[in-house]
Specification:
This protein has 1195 residues and is an alpha+beta fold. It is built from 33 helices and 46 strands. The strands form seven sheets. Strands 20, 21, 22, 23, 24, 25, 26, 27, 28, 29, 30, 31, 32 and 33 form a 14-stranded antiparallel sheet that branches. A hairpin with a 2-residue loop joins strand 28 and strand 29. The longest helix is centred in the first third of the chain and has 29 residues. Bound molecules: zinc ion. Zinc ion binds next to helix 6.
């Protein structure tokens, strides 16, 4: 007979209706180390006693200090929760005193290592939690050890390979990672531990230490084992019932067995009965929650790995999951996943929360959380802890698989949408909003419902309230990887779905230059879904041949029809520099695909672009001159000759008319687009798609045909070729005798015309390279050849108008015809006639009077052979009655003519012998410092003052300034290391023409202006005298050169006098102040004794003999220098250094510019980036900005 003390009955375990994992079994603290003593031999008797039990009832319940350790129930109806990883026969080391190994059927799952008498046995003889295993060691002879804190188990396998397998899987299953996770699973171990003590179990002559805890009753051999965590079994109370029996006895009945207990006293019996009944009640209530939640079929499987009957939930994420996944959820922390047991944490399971899990639950929540799970990353029931951790972290912490809400990234809109949505019952949308960043605690702006929760309360949306409350402090998923990526790269993949067959070539890493024949394409089943585009061998295949994520797409380009073997084709460019070509013969199919793909990668901020019938759409990095330091991401689409762009910080899309660009150039990986008033630098972030964009934009910016409107146009709708020729003639040809009548060199004319036809914008007419007669003939030939002619289809009506004898009737007839011309013809005709009008106004020099011009231009413009005299008559009328027919503002015309006169004079003066020199009156001006990015090109009309120039620069740069900023234009001489602030009323043009190659104009703040004004205001009469250190450039006065000497100076209203010393009676030298130009600074090479120096240039007046001197003055202090300088300026400018009201004068200047059309304003400014040499730049700038004709643009 067995020793009573060791002959413990193993009670029959009720067949549970549910898997019976509970919070407590997660707890394995160190003091609870399992320490299994050798199983008494007599135990088998007990098992034999119950051998009639159905073999399927194999649940093992190992109670450990009130915690369930090994509940892995297996029933017929419920698959085993934790799959068996390995099982087989092993020999177990003999108990003490025995030499015979015991043959055991051993099973290992993720949680327990158990062994049984045989493979049919339901009740194990031993259970070793894997979490308590600290080591597994190979000890030779097919043997291995399983080490726990208190004990070593020795097993022997049938072969070395079998042994190695056991060791290997055991090592995988155990180890520090698992142990750590298990510890993190710790759940309130002593929850509801209501009663413990010894009870006698009838039929057993020993008392068992019994613990009623939660919804279970645990049996231990004695209190010591309870303390050590070693138990016999546990009874799941959800199937239990307690009946009071005679005296101190009571029965715990289950469907499988009746446990008849005898309490030590009557009083204790009552307590036991009550405790067990409470336990039953709790068990029932716990199952109640689980059952309610499992009522939704999707809640019957773990949301993460699919394991059945998940008993855990994240009450904020609204998903239900298995115990193993729960461990990983816990490690995310409660700010991400609030893990609760369906069975244990019954207090949290309010009706609203349960209802929420039925409405959301695994199905809907996963539609959000797991919208984009790649099969390779998905979990299965068998996934390892490491896999689970990776997946669950990605899923909930990073939100990697989320279905992005379309408003993602737009905080304001998200919050707004949340506030609106919580008024409805759509909790799915709330979930999507909140986990895409909507702020649960945002301000609704409503005093009576200040938060979304309050709003939901007001609208009686209990589930919304519940969801929001659970997520009040939830951390929103954010991918750490994504942090490094610029936010502008983000795009919400909208849920666009499309599929069908397409033909595809192999993807490539270089642009497609050749035609792809049909043979090079393969038929593929293509699927666009949830932000992924995949292509399959056929629609029957489950594994894609390849694909790409929508967010990887940077550009989509539609090829012109019949580019390739398939009539319709499009290209997709990925950010990994791959190009994918797809084709189809069906135009509808292509349109649909293009539309769907574009929709799924263009972000909401640029969705306007989707409405266009684009040939190319995508994202590019760009810079603008206002912010050259950093490039930003913009969305572009090319439609015909128009580029539509959605740039950062601009609202809505903008359009760039490519045929009207002032300049388009490509500089390595940068495409520069210059429009009037704006320059855009498009960067080639990636070579492949940039190449496509650049080619497309260049093509679109070129001429598209032979009619006027198909030419590259200026902003004023004039063909570039016309504008450039007219400008050139205006600059260099108005004084040329017989201009437009003389023929040029035919080959040169043809070459130039061809160059214009190829790309007019790139043709810069330079005086040194072109003859005026060649250029004038290019213009004539252009008009003679242009398709449809300048006068369009009704040219005959123009010709017959000459027959109208009444002049005023004739004029109104011309006006009518003019008004009926197409836009481009109109602008071109007006410009040309204006030009011809100017030409004949200077006929004294060029001999081309009205009549001569008419003879030349009549047949040219009407494209007749010259025999129809009416053609000349029309041109003559148009020039002669130019003002009347075109409603010309005579004042502006006069200004234009004045300006031309000024140009002619200026050039004559500058180069009296060589004739007209470069007549550029375009100047390069820098803002704040000389560097390429601060460079601007300004057309400087004769009348422009320094103040106007300054205003222009600041306006163009959108600079704001205050009254005391004293923005000023400086002329800077690099070689001399000097600079001079221009007086605000000083004319810029003469200074511009006197600038050497190493000097430039710079607009910057004049930092000593305020001090100078203060100084001058304090003076009664503006004179100054004092000692200065003086040095001559040349030894004019016979003084020692090469050094600075003290001299006494007197400056009065008329002159500057130099005295040898303060006591000298006679000045050694005297200069008229008006002939002095004073610069700040002295070049360092001269080694000035202080850094407060002035360089003075004296230029004698013209009438005298030409004389120029330069010398240097050095002051001891900055203040002194400033005072001298202020005195000079004050004398030279009648005491006014600065306008009384700078801001007001700027406003006036602006008003003037508004009153006149932009082009008509003297001093119109264009910003053009520098390309090529300075000289080329000047010419190119001049070519398209210095257009006096534009004065009439608005008439
Ligand atoms: Zn799971």
């Amino acid at each position: 007979m067995a020793d009573k003390s060791t002959s413990l009955p193993v009670p029959i375990i009720p067949k549970p209706r549910y898997s019976s994992l509970c919070s407590d079994d997660e707890v394995l603290d160190d003091e609870g180390d399992l320490c299994y003593e050798s199983v008494p031999e007599k135990r088998d008797l007990w098992i034999e006693n119950y051998s009639s039990l159905p073999s399927t009832q194999n649940s093992i319940y190992l109670p450990v200090t009130g915690r369930v350790l090994a509940p892995s129930p297996k029933t017929d109806s419920t698959p085993q929760l934790t799959p068996v990883i390995k099982m087989g026969w092993l020999d177990k080391n003999p108990p003490q005193g025995s030499l015979i190994y015991q043959r055991r059927w051993v099973k290992l799952d993720a949680d327990y290592l158990r062994y049984f008498d045989n493979e049919k046995e339901v009740y194990s003889k031993r259970v070793i939690p894997t979490s308590s295993i600290t080591g597994v060691a190979n000890v030779g002879d097919q043997k291995f050890e399983v080490v726990t804190h208190n004990r070593i188990f020795l097993f022997r396998a049938e072969s070395d390979s079998e042994r190695n397998e056991w060791v290997s899987v055991l090592q995988d299953m155990t180890g520090p990672v698992r142990a750590r996770v298990s510890n993190e699973l710790t759940l309130n171990p002593m929850v509801n531990s209501e009663m413990k003590g010894y009870l006698e179990l009838r039929g057993l002559r020993s008392k068992l230490y019994t613990v009623v805890c939660g919804d279970k009753v645990f049996l231990y051999k004695n209190i010591e084992e309870y303390k050590m965590g070693i138990g016999i079994t546990s009874i799941d109370m959800n199937v239990g019932n307690v009946k009071e029996m005679d005296r101190r006895a009571f029965d715990l009945t289950t469907p499988y067995r009746i446990f008849s207990f005898i309490a030590e006293t009557d009083q204790l019996k009552d307590q036991w009965v009550e405790a067990m009944r409470n336990s039953i009640a709790e068990a029932l209530s716990n199952y109640e929650v689980a059952e309610k939640i499992w009522a939704e079929p999707d809640n019957q499987k773990c949301a993460d790995c699919g394991a059945p009957k998940p008993e855990w939930a994240a009450i904020n994420l609204c998903v239900v999951f298995c115990k193993r996944c729960a461990g990983e959820h816990r490690s995310l922390g409660p700010s991400i996943s609030k893990v609760r047991s369906l069975k244990m944490d019954k207090k949290v399971w309010t009706n609203e929360l349960i209802q929420l899990f039925r409405v959301l639950g695994n199905e809907r929540a996963n539609q959000f959380w797991a919208a984009n799970v790649p099969p390779s990353e998905a979990l299965s029931v068998c996934s390892s802890s490491e896999e689970r951790r990776r997946f669950i972290t990605a899923k909930y912490r990073e939100g990697k698989y989320r279905r992005y809400h379309p408003l993602f990234g737009n905080q304001k809109e998200l919050n707004n949408a949340l506030c609106i949505n919580v008024q409805s019952n759509d909790v799915c949308e709330t979930l999507a909003l909140v986990f895409c960043g909507a702020d649960v605690n945002c301000d609704t702006g409503l005093p009576d419902s200040p938060s979304p929760i309050a709003l939901a309360v007001n609208y009686g949306q209990a589930l919304q309230v519940e969801f929001l409350t659970q997520n009040r402090n939830t951390e929103i998923p954010r991918s750490e990887v994504k942090l490094a990526i610029h936010t502008e790269h983000y795009m919400a993949p909208p849920s666009i779905t499309h599929n069908g067959f397409l033909f595809k070539t192999a993807s490539m890493a270089r642009p497609i230059t050749e035609r792809k024949n049909k043979e090079e394409f393969s038929r593929r089943w293509c699927v666009l879904n949830d932000g992924n585009f995949n292509y399959y061998e056929s629609d029957k295949n489950a594994t894609p041949n390849g694909g790409l994520k929508m967010k990887e797409i940077v550009c989509l380009a539609v090829s012109p029809p019949e580019t390739h073997g398939y009539d319709h084709s499009f290209e997709i460019y990925s950010d990994a520099e791959r190009l994918y070509l797809f084709g189809t013969d069906n135009p509808e199919t292509m349109r649909e695909w293009v539309k769907s793909i574009a929709k799924s990668f263009i972000p909401q901020c640029a969705e306007e672009l989707l409405q266009k019938d684009f040939e190319r759409i995508g994202r590019l990095r760009y810079k603008d001159p206002l912010n050259l330091e950093s490039s930003r991401v913009g969305w572009f689409c090319l439609v015909g000759s128009t580029l539509h762009v959605c740039l950062e910080d601009s609202h809505g899309q903008e359009t760039i008319h490519l045929q009207k660009l002032l300049e388009l150039s490509r500089d390595n990986e940068v495409l520069v687009l210059v429009e009037r008033g704006r320059t855009l630098y498009i960067e080639g972030e990636r070579k492949l798609d940039f190449h496509g964009w650049a080619a497309g934009i260049e093509r679109a910016a070129g001429s598209s045909g032979d009619t006027l409107r198909q030419q590259q146009l200026t902003e004023a709708d004039i063909p570039v070729i016309v504008e450039r020729c007219i400008h050139y003639i205006t600059q260099y040809g108005l004084t040329s005798e017989g201009i437009y009548r003389k023929s040029g060199v035919n080959s040169k004319i043809a070459a130039l015309l061809e160059a214009f036809r190829r790309n007019a914008r790139s043709v810069w007419l330079k005086e040194a390279e072109q003859q005026v007669d060649d250029v004038s003939n290019v213009l004539k030939r252009f008009f003679r050849d242009i398709e449809e002619g300048l006068f369009g289809q009704h040219s005959q009506n123009w010709l017959t108008t000459t027959a109208v004898s009444d002049e005023s009737k004739r004029i109104s007839h011309y006006q009518l015809l003019f008004n009926n011309l197409p836009r481009v013809n109109k602008a071109t005709l007006r410009t040309l006639v204006n030009h011809l009008y100017c030409v004949q106004r200077f006929s004294e020099m060029n001999q081309m009077n009205l009549h001569n011009l008419a003879i030349v231009f009549g047949p040219t413009l009407f494209q007749t052979d010259g025999k129809d005299y009416n053609a000349g008559r029309v041109v003559e009328d148009l020039i002669q009655h130019y003002i009347a027919i075109f409603h010309v503002n005579e004042q502006q015309l006069k200004r234009q003519l004045d300006e031309i006169t000024y140009i002619i004079k200026l050039r004559d003066n500058l180069n009296p012998k060589t004739g007209p020199a470069s007549g550029d009156f375009i100047c390069t001006v820098y803002l704040e410092e000389k560097k390429e990015t601060a460079e601007q090109h300004v057309k400087v009309p004769a009348s422009m003052t320094a103040a106007e120039l300054t205003f222009e620069i600041l306006d163009r740069r959108k600079m704001t300034w205050k009254d005391k900023d004293y923005w000023c234009c400086f002329e800077v001489y690099e070689k001399e290391e000097t600079e001079r602030p221009l007086h605000y009323q000083e004319r810029v043009l003469p200074i511009l023409h006197s600038l050497g190659t190493d000097s430039y104009l710079l607009v910057k703040k004049h930092h000593s202006m305020e001090a100078m004004l203060v100084y001058l205001a304090s003076k009664v009469d503006v004179t100054k005298h004092g000692m200065l250190k003086f040095r001559e450039e040349k030894s004019l006065l016979g003084l020692t050169t090469g050094s600075f000497n003290d001299r006494y100076f007197m400056l009065n209203q008329t002159s500057l006098r130099l005295y040898k010393d303060v006591r000298s009676n006679r000045a050694e030298k005297e200069w008229p102040v008006k002939c002095l130009k004073v610069f700040q600074g002295i070049k360092k090479k001269l080694r000035p004794p202080t850094c407060w120096g002035l360089t003075v240039v004296y230029e004698s007046e013209r009438t005298e003999k030409q004389e120029k001197q330069q010398w240097y003055l050095c002051c001891d202090t900055q203040t002194e220098m400033r005072e001298w300088f202020a005195t000079f300026l004050s004398i030279q400018h009648a005491g006014v250094l600065w306008p009384a009201d700078w801001v007001k004068s700027r406003a006036a200047s602006r008003a003037a510019s508004r009153a006149a059309p932009p082009d008509a304003r003297l001093g119109n400014v264009s910003l053009i980036p520098l390309r090529g040499s300075e000289n080329e730049m000047r010419n190119s700038v001049a070519a398209f900005t210095a257009d006096p004709l534009a004065l009439f643009g608005n008439l």
